[in-house]
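Hi everyone, sorry if this is the wrong subforum. Our group has a chain we'd like a structural model of before ordering constructs, and none of us has done structure prediction before. Sequence below.
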Amino acid sequence: LMGPTATGKTELALKLAESFSIEIINVDSVLVYKGMDIGTAKPTIAELNHVQHHLINIISPLESYSVAEFLQSALYLINDIIARGNTPVLVGGTMMYYNALINGISKLPESNPIIRTKLEQRIEQNGLNTLYNELCIVDEFAAKKINCNDKQRIMRALEVFYITGQPISSLQIKKSDTLKNTKLLSLCILPENREILHQRINERFSKMLDSGFLNEILTLRVKYPSLTDTHTSMRSVGYFQAWQYLENKVDEIQMIEMATAATRQLAKRQITWLRKFDAINIASNGFSLSDMYSELHKLVYSFISTKP
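Answer:
Right subforum, don't worry. Here is the predicted structure as C-alpha cells:
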C-alpha cells in the first residue's frame, strides 16, 4: 500500500486488520528510528500492539539503515508471515524501498567503518573535492551520476572501490533477489486534489508542533549527545527544519514554511514515482477514509480469496 505522505496509509492499513489476518511491514525510512515518533506520525503504542508491526523502532537516530538491509529484512519477513498463515501488508512512502522489492538492488559490500573513518578524515583535512576528483579517476561513470557535493554517495562509491577493487558502477549491474516470484497486489493512493493534500500536510505539521515535536528533538539531543543535523535521521523532512530553528538559524515562521514546503516537495517526488509504477490506484475522493477503505477492502478480499 503505497502513497505520498499524509494520505492516510497508516489508518487504512490498521483498519484492514479488522477484517483480515495481516501483519504490517513498515516501508518508511524514518519510522525505523527509535524516539522519532511525533515527527514521523508513527503509529501509537496501542496501534503497534493491536496489529503486529515490523521494521519500526529498530535502530537509534545515530545509526543508518540501508536499502539493502531493508530488502533483506523485508524478504525474510514476507516469507515468515506467510508461513504463519497471515498476509503481509507493506505500508509506507519510501519509494526506493519499494523499487528494491520489485526490481532488486545492486549486490554491494557492507560498510567498512575503518575505511569510512579514513575518508572522513581526508574530507576534514583536504575537503570533499579531493575525494570527488579521485572518484572521477577510479570510476568516471559513477562520478558523472553523483553531484560533487553529495558527500555520502561519494564516500560510498570510494568505499566500495577500496573494498572490492572494482568500480561501484560495474557492481551495480548485478541485481539482488526480488518479489518477482511472489503473488503481489500493488495498491497506491494518488491524490486527485493537490490543494487538499497540501492542506493536510500543513495541518499535520501544525498538529505535530502542538503535540511536542520540538521537545521530542530536544529529548533526542539529550539522550544522544553526539547527534547532529548531519546524521541521516536528522536530515529527514521536518526534523532538519526543526533542528535549524532550535539552533536559532531560522525563526518559527521560517521553520514552518520550510518544513511544509519540503514535505510538499517530498509528496511531489513520491507522486511522480507512483505514476510510473504499475499499481492499482485507490481514488482519494477528498481523502474520505471510509470511501478509500471500501475500495481497498474489496481489492484485498479479492486478492486473498484468489488462489495462487
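For your construct planning: Residues 185 and 299 are 9 Å apart (CA to CA). The beta strands are 22-26, 53-54, 87-91, 187-188, 280-281.
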